[in-house]
Design brief:
The complex is a heterodimer.
Chain A lengths: L1 E4 L9 E8 L2 E9 L6 H5 L6 H6 L7 H16 L5 H31 L5 H7 L1 H22 L8 E2 L2 E2 L5 H26 L13 E4 L10 E4 L4 E2 L4 H4 E4 L8 E4 L8 H8 L5 H9 L12 H24 L16 E9 L2 E9 L5 E7 L1 H20 L4 H14 L4 H5 L1
Antiparallel strand pairs in A: 1-2, 2-3, 4-5, 6-7, 7-8, 9-10, 11-12, 12-13
Helix pairs in contact in A: 4-6, 4-11, 4-13, 6-7, 7-11, 9-11, 10-11, 12-13
Chain B lengths: L1 H5 L4 E6 L5 H7 L3 H8 L2 E5 L12 E7 L5 H13 E7 H6 L1 H8 L32 E3 L6 H14 L16 H7 L24 H4 L16 H8 L5 H10 L3 H13 L1
Parallel strand pairs in B: 1-2, 1-3, 3-4, 4-5
Classes of the chains: A alpha+beta, B alpha/beta.
Chain lengths: 419, 267
Amino acid sequence: MQIRINHIAKMEGHAGFMASVIKGDVKSAKLEVQEGIRLIEGVLVGRHYADMPIIAQRICGICPVVHNLTSIKSLEAAMGVQVTPETKKLRTVLELAQFIHSHALHLFFLSLADFLDMDNDIQLVKKYPEETKKAVRIREYGMEIVKVVGGRVVHPLTNEVGGFKKAPDAEALRKIVASSEEIMKDALDLGEFFRKIKIPEFSRVTEYVCLGNNSNYSIYDGDVISSRGLHIPVEKFESNFQELQKQNEVIKKVEHNGKSYMVGAIARVNLHKDKLSPKAQKYLESLGWSFPDFNPFHNILAQMTEVIHSIEESAKLISELLHADMNEVLTKPYEAKEGIGIAAVEAPRGTLYYHVEVDAKGYVKNVNIITPTAQFLANLEDDIADYIPGVLNLENKQRERKLRAFIRAYDPCISCAVH
Amino acid sequence: MEHLKSFFKPKVAIVSLTSCEGCQFALLDLGTRFLDFAEKTEMVDFRLLEDEEDLGGKIDIGIVEGTPITEANVKTLMELRERSRFLVVLGNCAAMGGIPEMKNYQEGANTIKHVYKYVHGINNPEIREVDNFVKVDFTFPGCPITAEEFLKYMPMFLDACQPGNEAKIPEIPDQPVCVECKAKGNRCLLLDKKPCFGPMIQGGCDAVCPTSNMMCQGCRGIRPKGNVKAMRATLKTMMTDEEFENTTEIFGLRDDISEWESKLNSN
């Protein structure tokens, strides 16, 4: 039997799905990518380094912040550019804000209808007007932070190698902190709504991978750690993980020791649950999971947990910055230098890696970008192959709905994965 | 209510070709203001928000974002034009080739070798903007688009679709980025001998880049009365010709500048 879904909507980028099942055995299960190649790594070669963050962030319209940040971090590593603690803090705030609006979009507008058996968000919005308002407010809060700090939501402008071109307006930041409590209330209400949704049961053991340091819920930096005890510096990622391209495929999938693995909210929540903010920890406890939790549908609740964490944590960091000298975030003079830089930042969907080589004049010689979706795609396919036998007896339309829901729960970003 | 009843809801489709989808997100980011707009239409295809299959047939307004790269992209674009009374394009990729067009200026077919080991079977055409394939009725410029502009001009299209109304297509006024930049009280980057393309570029973006102390790199394209020659003369002391050309490649401005200059020379 062939299972074919031509086009999966409500997802970033274009892909379909195809599986082949013989006598109840899943022989293959594969996401079929329909995205064109933009060759971002290729077009960066030969360009001045300062163009790289501007071009690279355009890989993705939903998570430009993290492409911008990671390319900047890799260039700073390559050229030995130091930045101030205030700059690091403000970048972390940007990334947390990116988590808030990306997660809020996915869990409410892209995924939720799947669990309520609805076909579109117009129905969803009509049936749940209060929840919609809350989801919109949370998203707008995250976007407002990106706008105030980054100058714009889609493809922010202020961030560059060495720091910021412009310090954010303190008054606008004060307003954000002042509204954080109200937004937290919305988030906790929405969290409660999601807690009550019936989530399908499914579990398959995998390896969870994310950034980790000993002090906090690592977003902006850390080593690469995993649920199987891996702990390596980010520089060793490429020698421990294998990026593979098969013929005719435009996404280079990534494996660890020949096996698939998982990144993103569910991986982070599993590996760092003790480092979540107090309210996020409390929310996670209310879900009653036993750890490690291997239900990929739970990614949505893990994202909800991270929304709560990110609201609490970003408000804390902004308050600290308001007591510091904000001009410390401004770029200080430095010189372009030859070198190789490797950096990683947690994106909403998992760890994003950049490897860059710069020549003595500051021109890019080589770039490699490894995105979260490229990393978890093999895991998604392994998971769904395991999931299919359980939905095989359903009528076609019902089965297709379940499979779409499964794929969407992963929150894949095909534009990122192909780049 | 009487007014609402008599309002004809035009059929609208919003589709994307290969892109970052940032222009669609700029729309979604309008939140309830976008949902209010959607309410005034019959949205037959907006795959970011709905799962239902588009049933085909004639529509009033087709809106498209991105670059036609794969064969499927080209087919989607041609079909959308065929079905739509008005075809509206969103953003720099669709209008000017954008980031993907950079490879045209580089090593062309070789750029792919920096990225893939196996290049066989992968579509890697020269990048051509949407208007090389189909007739375009209106362009929302920018990378990404300015969502406020969408809210300003789209209702004019909804009006044009009302029975008995004239099919009038709006025009974005010809003004440089500098007008909004000055209105915001920014200090001109050029005065500080920092390069900026603002004077020759189509405004309407709220001068968002110079407001963030970043030069205008021209993502909205040369304005009708934009003077490339004067701009180049101003920038002479601030950047080399090579730097100028490299910068114009980012948003697909370079071929438009060449065209402008060859027209000037032929006159």
